[in-house]
Write a structure and sequence with these properties.
The structure is a homodimer of 411-residue chains. By secondary structure, chain A is of the alpha/beta class. In chain A, 40% of the residues lie in helices and 26% in strands.
Chain lengths: 411, 411
Amino acid sequence: MTAEIISIGTELLLGHIVNTNTAFLSRKLAEAGIDLFNTSVVGDNSKRLACALNLALTRADVIITTGGLGPTVDDITIETIADLTGKPLVQNKMVRKCLENYFKFKRLKMPETTMRQTYTPKGVRCVRNKVGTAPGLIAEWKNKVIICLPGPPRELEPMFSADILPFLKNRSKNSCVIKSRTIKITGLPESVVNNMVKGLLEMKPPTTVGIYSKPGQVELKIMSKAGNEKTAAAAIGRIEKKIRARLKNFIFGCDEQTLEGALGNILIKEKLTIAIAESCTGGLLADRITDVSGSSKYFIMGLVAYSNVVKENILGISGGILKKNGAVSREVALEMARRIKLLAGADIGVGITGIAGPGGGTNTKSVGLVYISIVTKKKKMVKELLFKGSREEIKFQATQVALDLVRRLFY
Amino acid sequence: MTAEIISIGTELLLGHIVNTNTAFLSRKLAEAGIDLFNTSVVGDNSKRLACALNLALTRADVIITTGGLGPTVDDITIETIADLTGKPLVQNKMVRKCLENYFKFKRLKMPETTMRQTYTPKGVRCVRNKVGTAPGLIAEWKNKVIICLPGPPRELEPMFSADILPFLKNRSKNSCVIKSRTIKITGLPESVVNNMVKGLLEMKPPTTVGIYSKPGQVELKIMSKAGNEKTAAAAIGRIEKKIRARLKNFIFGCDEQTLEGALGNILIKEKLTIAIAESCTGGLLADRITDVSGSSKYFIMGLVAYSNVVKENILGISGGILKKNGAVSREVALEMARRIKLLAGADIGVGITGIAGPGGGTNTKSVGLVYISIVTKKKKMVKELLFKGSREEIKFQATQVALDLVRRLFY
């Protein structure tokens, strides 16, 4: 079964809102094994909606529209469907009753315009809206199905999950499932990962691998379509094994796992504590570490040492070292890591100093230059890095490398 | 001039990512007064992309594609455009040079596959990608323009703003402009703002006002379409004046301004410095303050005092106060603010302590309870708040209130 989504709303074409409905529906359709090859957006315009519907009817079995079901004159979905299918508009008693109850419950007088929403094309099935006023529609016509859903995500999402998805699954009699697994990698650019998984990216369905570049990390998504969950999971398992053999410890996690979460698991397992002194990342490293629930078990303290005075007075770095090497230097990063470890009595100390930009660069030290140091009982290291991007991007990339350097202590 | 957007990527059709590129481009096109009536998404499939392009060519003057410009076999945009226009692929020396420099800068060996990105249809204009590897394209063909942009937003957005938009504006010679202004409000829920601007939200074009709820803030977007910039700006100015009269200092800024940026401007103007001690927000407040370029002028230090030991040993809060009131208390928040101000020698001290959850709640102190204290030479205050949401949402809301409390010292 092939589906197509048409989103209706001038606010989408003006960029006032992001089309999260299409992303939600796409994900749900994929999980149900229903193919989706095209999605589109049109404004609140009958003629253009009719065009889009006619085109979709030539290539899909099920057309799902979102939006344009409200009570105002801008809402043109119902009339357009009625015109297209030649079904006259008739008042639906169930919808009328529901609307009357809705306003009674809210202790509000029903506006005149609302009555418009009680008229639907003759013979179509109305789907109750448990959150808002606009009912959904399921119109079967010439062996195709047109499904109309309300625009607000909080109305669309429960309606789709509760009523539309079971209807589609039943109709498609699709005995297939799609499962997926995302393998997350850091420390390598996309092009290098691409080379390392050559052959896998070219696989054809039912099992495929896609590569996605995200800030500071690369993700490989394995998808498999099969007759049942077990077969799909086994196919994914086989590919995952191959990917793990090639990328080894560049992989930090899977699916919903974050780098800071993966590091947290290691620190808990190893019963180790961490303390950080950051300058150019300005608190972002501490923020990411503490985004992990339970991080208080291993995170002792973070110091955002933005000025040299703080580096001297609180961390106790000698003025001589700062003066000789400058605040952005290998030596100061190392001292920050060493001294925060001492100050906090932690097992691991991290120091970060650099130039996040856009100002602050010099001839010898350009914007994006960052030194990251890790100090443990047994090990001392400093890494020099050069990042590109906006201030926020440089901050993020630096924290990504810092988290990864700590993680790699254990591999 | 009419534009149409075609987004290319199977990951969009699978719902793995949300199509923010289309929202961004739609907004920019609207602001430039360029009509957009249709947008669509197709997967990484040459045939379906060709179909979409052919359809778009029948109804738009400018077609903008996003995605599919990478070095992998999935990336089919360039070949499809070459086939469609009959222009052979030739190596572009400028693109080659840029790519070589890119890898040199990153100190990486250029992968073989990257070379694929140096081939573009003969005669098209290549647009430099200042962030990633894939160049953009401007192909003029049969009186139409096809513009190809890279998929990652951090590459697409600067390229569009710097190179594509000026090209389109010049070509469209559009006699109408759409201007907009976003008024940003914090400290009031959407329903209250909604009531306060009644009458304005119901305005009809050419000048309209929309209300949007964002995490920790509410935004009012004024839009105006007119024959020239001056008329549109004047119409917006009149409405803005009305909004400002009603919402007064609940408004912290406009358009691209952030709350941390607005606070930064105040601190620079007042020549004041700030230091913060945060517990439950875990570094997020310092991170937000230091996201502002030039924040080193007023931000002295941040301390993420996650454990009681740090609160005692580094901040010097007496064990008695901690024991008597608990770490999450009015008294400890005040001590954190007072002592970090002292430690840093700053003009303003901020202390935050609370329970970000999901764990850590008790019968008397529930998840979401946060105490925020501000201490200056003349003033001491503590505010008790109760936030709802995920760990990240609670952290964010607490920093939003903290920033706003400091801002309000000056109103």
